[in-house]
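dumping the sequnces here before i forget
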Amino acid sequence: MKESSEAIIEKFRRITQNTHEYAKSLKGKGRLLAGYMCTHVPEEILYAAGIIPLRILSAHESQAMTRSYIHETYCSFSHDCAYQGLQKNYDYLDLLVHSSSCIHMAEAFNVWVRFAGFQDKSFLLTFPHIIHTKRAGGIMVESYREFKQFVEKFAKRPITDDDIERAIKVYNHTRRLLKRLWAFLRHDRSPVTGSDVAAVTLAAQVMDKQECNPMLEQLIERLEAEPGKEPSGVRLMVTGGACDDLRIFDLIENLNHSTNLIFMDSCTAARYFWFEVPEDRLDKLEAIAEGYISRIPCPAKDNVPGTGEKKRFRFIQQFIEDYKPDGIVFLYQRFCSPQSMDIVALKPIIDMLGIPWTELELDTTVPVTQFGTQLEALVEIIKRVAP
Amino acid sequence: MNKEKFFAGLDAGHINTKAVIMIKEEIIGHETVPTGFDVGAAAQAALYGALQDARVSRDKLSGIGTTGIFGDMVQAPPLDVIGTVPDYVAVAKGALFFNRNSRTVIDMGGNIHKAVRYDPKGDLLDVIQNDKCADGLGIFYTTMAKAVGLSEAELSESALNATGNRSIAIQCALSAQSDAIDLMCQGVDIGDVADAVSKVIAERVADMCTYMSLTKEIVVAGKLAESQAVIKHLSRLLKEDLAVLDFPEYVGAVGAVMSCGVGK
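..and the predicted 3d for all of it:
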């Protein structure tokens, strides 16, 4: 008997709830595991060497221990991730990889390296500060070359172009499948909820893609055959920073008013997969660099020299056009300066489009009642202003 | 006669002013009043209350030692202050007075918490104090007790009976308060809210303590030390046995008497 879409989604959800258990099961099968702290890390290179990359996630546990290690006013996500290392929750990892993205996560990485036993099994990739420059691609290729050499030495095997090409294709397949899943949210009567899509997307970040892809294929096949759910309520789009706390997405879809979460622009959601690496190129590392440059940029890297233009805003405008949200929720980590500064520039654009918005600042914990009240107020406003 | 000399110690803190009356090494009276804006008046009131408690008239006092954040401000007449010491000196001397084997005291007050390490004479070896973001833990505790309609003692008792494991924000007391109230709005059990409040305090104090090595025996002073729930979490986080001093709120005031060398 075929599994229902609910059953498949539940499997994905369980993986997000028990990432360590899932990862240890891979380890039990003799796989090498590499944790990564930022989606700028080219997973393809690790995968080409037979290593499973999995994203380090936070545990949403209030603690003060990391205040002694990293700055108080760094985001709670970085504190929480640092804490995971100090608590030895990821001790089963064979390797830890990070790219020089934001300073907050870099400090979390440093905590793991200096105090959590990862000194001899970690790698920090150089990543250009501003990606919209001609030199950025060259810097990335050079950085990937060093990384590839490191991984070859670590895995005690050479990584051939064929290995990388296979990995590129596996990862592109995941990205295409996730895009197909997200496409359900564009329509009224979507057979899947936004919070379920968020859960599946998060699970994909900690899964072996060989296992993830067939599950995604099955899920999409089931959903395509299913009638849609209830007519859409107020359509809400989230844009902001890293958020691996699925409770917030559940909250958005469980207000006193009928609401649908229809898009999540963040590095734990769309920004993770909304790009592809060109296939069948001669220079594989150049192809990977090209792919990663074409991503929806992280606010920490998104600045066109000379003009100050934010390329991410173009994506957001396109998403608004395609997914037609009635309201926007700016959801970002407290103390994430690039993200909160982006919002200052983004609000006038959203205002010009006549879309109401609200702002939710993330901490380790989710103040359900406060956020709920704020979101309901947004929905009330939308209902009043919507045509 | 020397043995009949009475001395007073005044600890003028951010939130409360505490006074003790001592004869030799015996505490015979004590009083706490809110410090408020008029620090001098609070000191007078605390002293008056402590004298009443000790059944000693003011003219019998041989001298007053002061400490606390407002320690310098209570020196004006009519108080006959014979010496003022910084609060970390006073708390070390006071802790040693109560426990001769102690070498570290963690002092959790209304606004500031600190840890002080000292030698067998009570002389300072090291001091660490909270960062600004961790200010106001004592005020937070009092506010939360009021918010849930309990006394501070009842809040601790309730926390000790918690069945769940709830977390609240830890960035600062204001964030924590906001989250704790959110838990109340969600209908979370009062014991779990009280436990989350106690845990946040213990986390912040334990975090501060990681900056300094804590020499045994470790004792705890300050009004927050009266909360068994906070002490339970603090002991768990520090992985150390902690002894709560007698009269934890008055350790500074006693230390003021001791440091002025008038208690002997």
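The domain at 28-163 of chain A is CATH 3.40.50.11890 (Rossmann fold).
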